[in-house]
Amino acid sequence: MKPLPIAMLAAVSLLAAGPASAQQAAPPAAPAAPATRPKLIVAISVDQFSADLFAQYRSHFTRGFARLANGVVFPSAYQSHAATETCPGHSTILTGMRPARTGIIANQWVDQGAARGDKTIYCAEDETVPGSTHDNYTASDRHLRVPTLGERMKTADPRTRVVSVAGKDRAAIMMGGHRVDELWWWNGKDFVTYAGRATPPVVARAKAAVAALIAAPQDALPLPAWCAGQDRAIVAGTATVGQGRFARTAGDVVGFRASPASDAAVLSLAAGLIQDMKLGKGPQTDIISIGASATDYIGHSFGTQGTEMCIQMDQLDQSLGAFFDLLDRWNLDYEVMLTADHGAHDLTERQQQHAMPMETRLTADASVAAIGKEIGVSLGLAGPVLLAAESDVVIDRALPAPARAKVLAAALARFRAMPQVAAALPRAAIAATPMPSGPPETWTLMQRARASYDPERSGDFLLLFNPRVTPIPTPRPGYVETHGSPWDYDRRVPLLFWRKGMVGFEQPLSVETVDIMPTLAAAIGLNVVGVDGRCLDLDPGPGDNCPIIVREMPASGAPRP
């Protein structure tokens, strides 16, 4: 197979297989200033697309990202909470609420009361399904405590269609919410949805097109000239990265997932559903959320630099441009929002070579399980004593209260004495902290932790490592870099809005991803109150596109500036 145009391959395969229509044959419509509310909201999340990546490659974007950069740009939007992971981040984007209220405190957490042997809970599962585990589960929206924008739109106008497509189930579910007309995600081998739902013909065509794509080998993609400076091998543990070109053998589903082709497939399916369902063509406003997950898989596998990420940024730019061209071709009046669920920073070994010798990997002695075992032995207590999922650490609740108090004191003292640990925050202190307000870059670690705290799901203490400490002690092929820290390289993401006729501007001061939902709600005349975010005025002049939105925080917080 020839290396390009992989960015459009899936979309072309899908659309060519579909029925012809007058809309497809129509010439591109001339851009016009919007006179009404948009008929379609296109909400895009690019997983692990940090503000740093956007800034690094912005001058090289020529297609989709370049179009969005001509709209309203907030280069410093914050996933303001401490748990900068995929599930919490996606839960903020279309709810307007932080993880403390969405209930999605992490990708997974420990529930000692779960009625199964495996007490680790995946954020997008139904753990009540018999025989399930956190990594062999039935996908579900049951843990999301609040409504999404699509749900609010459907409540206001039942004719609204809500669609969500992503490269991960947790992205599709957290942005789509509880009342989704079509919900599809890539499960590692195929696009799937909830059990019992029908597969529309357009989805069947997409599945067949992607299966054919994976079944064929993929030649190495060409390296853009401006990526040449990234072309250098880096050894990290047993992995060597930095010079990849995404060549694949036939049937390589793992390589497909961590490649630009997977984002092209997601955008292809989204385009097919828009066309097939005639989204944006009715009297109501519809919404589609799209989770482009390849940047995250590529980042984990190869790091945020190197030829792999450079090619990915170029290919995603091309894929987004092709996707927007299709929407223009269909004469849709649509508004785009693009952001990310979290950021990241590069793998330790390359950072050390790039003027950051202080970069380190977490040492093995920081293992929660090992320390829990030592504390148990020292206190004469049987059992694991400490249980951990992500950064939340839980004390075995089978222990009597006095023993639990001793374990907590010993664990806090032990972790706080470690040079790689920034903070070990007990739940009582986090719970007593008021919900933060003001510029998110000024928040303390305790405030960032409070924004992720849920009294039913959070642990007994939160363990936070120092900046520039990567919590992967031993890198391996497919896993050399990660995120999840409370530091700004993981919190800061771009936020872009675009619509035909929009007069854009750039605001470098910080905003939050919880501001997205009330901002989009204002664009369609939907009033929302009682959320954590505020409506962002996208009018560059003295006008205000947020007049109907009550600009207030919940009762626990002061009005945001």
Summed over residues and divided by their number, the pLDDT gives a mean of 92
| Uncertain runs | 1-33, 550-561
Major sheet: size, sense and barrel closure?
A: 10 strands, mixed
Separation, N- and C-terminal Cα atoms: 54 Å
Oligomer: single chain
Percent strand equals 15-25%
Tell me the number of strands: 20
Can you walk through the features of this model?
With 561 residues, this protein is α/β, with parallel strands linked by helices. 33% of the residues lie in helices and 15% in strands. The chain has 20 helices and 20 strands. Strands 1, 2, 5, 6, 7, 10, 11, 18, 19 and 20 form a 10-stranded mixed sheet that branches. A 4-stranded antiparallel sheet has the order 13-14-16-15. A hairpin with a 4-residue loop joins β6 and β7 (191-192). α5 runs parallel beside α8 and α15 packs across α16.
Question: Quick recap of the structure?
Answer:
With 561 residues, the protein is α/β, with parallel strands linked by helices. Helices cover 33% and strands 15% of the residues.
